[in-house]
Design goal:
The longest helix is centred in the N-terminal third of the chain and has 34 residues, at 9-42. The protein has a single domain (10-202, 217-412), classed as Up-down Bundle (Growth Hormone, Chain: A), CATH 1.20.1250. It has helices spanning 9-42, 46-74, 77-91, 103-135, 137-165, 171-181, 183-199, 220-235, 239-257, 269-294, 296-306, 309-314, 319-347, 353-381, 383-412. It has 15 helices and no strands. The chain has 413 residues and is mainly alpha-helical. Helix 2 (46-74) packs across helix 4 (103-135).
């Protein structure tokens, strides 16, 4: 009989950290499934929601360069990760304390949550990349993303259950209860994080130190890649705007302006996000594995597949069309969280990888902010124009990915 193969320490670390992320994503992605509708209920306009969503991403991504540099200098991978997680997951249930007209405070907490992500992400991605060096970058980040998205699926599902049980009170009270319930996965995240820290105190030991120090510099390949991911981020509409559109569409439906009223309701809103996260998890695994075999082609294919999501979501006349658009949005998210990180870990040397992740995510966040702001404004002016800008920007990213891949081949030659 063949002896059962145990997980390697590196893979065990990847899985454990993935489970931490699972409960973390239950917390903040559960909140994301109702955040746009919640802000709209508190009185925020579409432009404000687009601005705040984009600003949150700007803060959450641009500060990653600062914390990435700090992480590389101090090598304090775990302290940075832990502090970031604490801020990230505790800011979400705090939304339950916001008053009925307190949309400004709600926006501040959303930005605080994104700040927590900025603190943790460069350190977290870097220690994940150390373990990934033994197991394959595409596969490792895909496994982590798949576990992330299981949590992102369960979080909205949990809130759907809360909405079913919470039959009394106003819609504001229902949302407040939802945010309060998210304290449970937040606390589980913290407990599991400290357990993982205790079991693997020095994850940097997974990847051998290079024989000689390689200073970080912006290679042409990396610059082309940054241009591509910036265009991708610019066109990738934040889910807050999507769910606000769906909730407003439901308002029109309930007024008798559409025949699909039985299939879309306020209580089912979290299920749309849950479905997107399930697609995200599967696509992350598929494209992550494909990246290890085909390299940049996995990125090109996933971008081309995801790009038309806005056409189906915002041009939807039927629920199946809307669901297809949300599923394509999930494909884009899966690629964003797995392949994009895997590419960075292959370009940037170990000694400055947190800085590399910081630069990558800073560019991503700046252009996500600009895109979210513009697309939020266009939503109120012309939805067809918003769809065209979203699709066009994402498709324009593909030539830059191809040029970056070609430059990689030249480096090898």
């Amino acid at each position: 009989m063949k002896q059962k193969k145990n997980l390697t320490p590196a893979m065990l670390f990847i899985v454990l950290f993935g489970i931490v992320s699972l409960f973390s994503d239950m917390t903040h992605e559960g909140a994301s499934s109702i955040r746009g509708a919640y802000l709209s209920l508190l009185g925020a306009s579409a432009a404000t929601i687009g601005f705040v969503s984009g600003l949150g991403e700007l803060v959450g991504y641009s500060l990653r360069y600062v914390f990435g540099r700090l992480t590389d200098k101090t090598r304090q991978y775990w302290p940075m990760t832990i502090i970031g997680y604490l801020v990230d997951v505790l800011a979400v249930p705090a939304l339950a304390l916001v008053h009925e007209d307190g949309w400004i405070w709600a926006c501040a907490l959303i930005i605080l949550e994104r700040t927590g992500k900025a603190i943790k992400k460069p350190a977290k991605n870097t220690i994940m990349s150390f373990a990934a060096s033994q197991e394959g970058a595409g596969r490792s980040f895909a496994i982590g993303e798949a576990l992330d998205q299981i949590g992102a699926f369960l979080g909205p599902l949990l809130l759907y259950g809360v909405m079913l049980l919470k039959t009394s009170g106003s819609m504001f009270q229902v949302y407040s209860t939802c945010f309060a319930v998210l304290l449970i996965p937040a606390l589980i995240t913290i407990v599991l994080l400290f357990y993982t820290r205790r079991k693997f105190p020095n994850p940097e030991e997974f990847e051998p130190e290079p024989k000689e120090y390689v200073p970080f510099r912006l290679k042409k390949r990396f610059i082309l890649y940054l241009a591509g991911i910036s265009l991708f981020a610019f066109g990738f509409i934040d889910y807050s705007l999507i769910i606000m559109h769906v909730s407003r569409h439901f308002a029109a439906i309930s007024a008798g302006l559409s025949e699909t009223s039985a299939l879309v309701s306020t209580g089912t809103l979290p299920l749309f996000y849950a479905g997107a996260m399930l697609v995200d998890a599967v696509s992350a695994l598929v494209f992550g594995m494909l990246y290890d075999k085909k390299g940049y082609w996995a990125l090109v294919i996933s971008t081309a597949v995801a790009a038309p999501f806005a056409l189906f979501v915002f041009g939807a006349k039927t629920v199946p069309t809307l669901l297809l658009g949300i599923a394509l949005w999930g494909v884009g998210m899966g690629a964003q969280e797995s392949i994009l990180k895997a590419v960075v870990s292959g370009i940037v040397p170990k000694s400055s990888r947190a800085t590399g992740f910081g630069i990558f995510e800073c560019c991503f966040g700046v252009f996500w902010f600009l895109g979210s702001w513009l697309l939020g404004i266009l939503y109120d002016v012309s939805i067809p124009a918003m769809i065209a800008v979203s699709m066009g920007a994402q498709l324009l990213a593909i030539p830059f990915f191809c040029l970056s891949a070609r430059d990689k081949d030249h480096e090898k030659g």
